[in-house]
């Protein structure tokens, strides 16, 4: 029977997961693993929320904890939840899609460890974390389920998964719960697992902090023209059913997430430029004042003119910043706070 259920969500995900877990029966013959994007420096309240809402015990596992049926394992802040054969790993590996914990590492490691026994579920969320992980699950013969985008509070992740993978089921939360119960009672289809692609294997090793993979010069993909927003190293472009990017030390990005990070970098650069121009104008005005006090009116006038020019350029840049069109993506910060103890 498919008895390894991995669930990923981001913005709107606490609500969706709470609804899903509330409809699952006690004694479900499966192990459930959940990753929701939450702040790295906070305490997650999600296990407590799920214990209040549902009948299946939920916990934040420790590194090396044995996997048991009838349990929900929730990824803690600042650690990827990775699934090994019979136990879990919690690692502070490189962020993927700006998140730690991230969904794709959990999905990929589950696919490698359990193959056809895995059911992957992508729920509400912005951008596209989880899409590459579902592809790994499908490669290994597992089942891919996506929340109906029309029901999801944020439809970015569900729509990305639908667009980039051969999804088995697109369902509302109540229907997903019914399907999980039914699948957990069905016999497993016999047959060997397909091997993960070479690039997917390398990415899984990197997520698990495998030293050989981290130090290997044979990186997944090919060098791109882009740099990592986090460490500024070269990004390798991986095109394995879906395009994604990964740097030498392991930071990983989907195209949408990389675009969002680049947009953020542009914003930072523009504000830094504005600050530099205003500081430059203030310094030249101070120098002009000192020159006038010393009776050097010609030099004072020259510095005053330069200060006015810098202020004019600063005002032009300020208008550019204020007139910039925002990216049409939803950041998950608001929903993240729902999973954090105050």
Describe what this molecule looks like in 3D.
The chain folds into two domains: 4-184, Rossmann fold, CATH 3.40.50.180; 257-323. Helices cover 42% and strands 18% of the residues. The protein contains eleven helices and 13 strands. The chain has helices at residues 13-22, 46-53, 103-114, 131-139, 156-164, 173-184, 198-207, 211-215, 255-293, 297-323, 333-336, and strands at 4-9, 31-36, 58-59, 71-74, 80-84, 87-91, 118-122, 143-147, 169-171, 222-227, 234-239, 243-247, 252-253. Strands 3-4-2-1-7-8-9 form a seven-stranded parallel beta sheet, sandwiched between helices. The longest helix is centred in the C-terminal third of the chain and has 39 residues, at 255-293. It is elongated and about 95 Å long.
Overall mean pLDDT score?
A: 87
How many angstroms does the end-to-end distance come to?
Answer: 40 Å
What general form does the structure show? elongated
Per DSSP E runs of 2 or more residues, the count of β-strands stands at 13
Number of domains: 2
Strand content: 15-25%
Output the CATH homologous superfamily of the largest domain.
Methylesterase CheB, C-terminal domain
Q: Helical segment tally?
A: 11
Architecture per CATH nomenclature, i.e. the level-2 architecture of the largest domain: 3-Layer(aba) Sandwich
- Low-pLDDT segments: 329-342
| Percent helix range | 40-55%
Largest sheet: 7 strands, parallel
Strand order of the largest sheet: 3-4-2-1-7-8-9
How is this structure best summarized?
It is built from 11 helices and 13 strands. It is an alpha/beta fold and 342 residues long. The protein folds into 2 domains: 4-184, Methylesterase CheB, C-terminal domain (Rossmann fold); 257-323.
């Amino acid at each position: 029977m498919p008895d390894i259920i991995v669930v990923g969500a981001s913005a709107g995900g606490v609500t969706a997961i709470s609804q899903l877990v509330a409809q699952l029966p006690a004694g479900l013959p499966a192990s459930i693993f959940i990753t929701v994007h939450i702040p790295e420096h906070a305490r997650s309240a999600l296990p407590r929320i799920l214990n209040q809402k549902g009948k299946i015990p939920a916990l934040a596992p420790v590194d090396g904890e044995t996997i048991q049926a009838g349990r929900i394992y929730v990824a803690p802040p600042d650690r990827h939840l990775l699934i090994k054969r019979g136990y879990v790993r919690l690692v502070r590996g490189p962020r993927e899609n700006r998140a730690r914990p991230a969904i794709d590492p959990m999905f990929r490691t589950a696919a490698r460890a359990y193959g056809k026994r895995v059911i992957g579920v992508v729920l509400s969320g912005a951008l596209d974390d989880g899409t590459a992980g579902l592809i790994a699950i499908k490669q290994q013969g597992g089942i891919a389920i996506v929340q109906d985008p029309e029901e999801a509070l944020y439809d970015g992740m569900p729509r990305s998964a639908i667009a980039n993978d051969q999804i088995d089921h697109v369902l509302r939360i109540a229907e997903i719960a019914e399907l999980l119960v039914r699948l957990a009672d069905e016999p497993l289809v016999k047959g060997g697992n397909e091997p993960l692609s070479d690039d997917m294997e390398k990415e899984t090793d990197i997520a698990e902090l495998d030293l050989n993979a981290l130090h290997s010069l044979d990186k997944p993909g090919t060098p791109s023209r882009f740099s990592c927003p986090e460490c500024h190293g070269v990004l390798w472009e991986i095109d394995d059913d879906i395009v994604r990017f990964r740097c030498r030390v392991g930071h990983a990005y989907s195209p949408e997430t990389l675009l969002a990070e680049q947009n953020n970098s542009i914003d930072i650069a523009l504000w830094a430029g504005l600050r530099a121009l205003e500081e430059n104008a203030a310094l030249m005005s101070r120098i002009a004042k000192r020159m006038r006090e010393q009776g050097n009116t010609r030099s004072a006038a020259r510095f005053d003119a330069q200060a006015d020019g810098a202020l004019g350029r600063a005002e032009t840049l300020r208008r550019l910043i204020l007139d910039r069109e925002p990216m049409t993506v939803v950041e998950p910060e608001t929903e993240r706070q729902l999973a954090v103890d105050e």
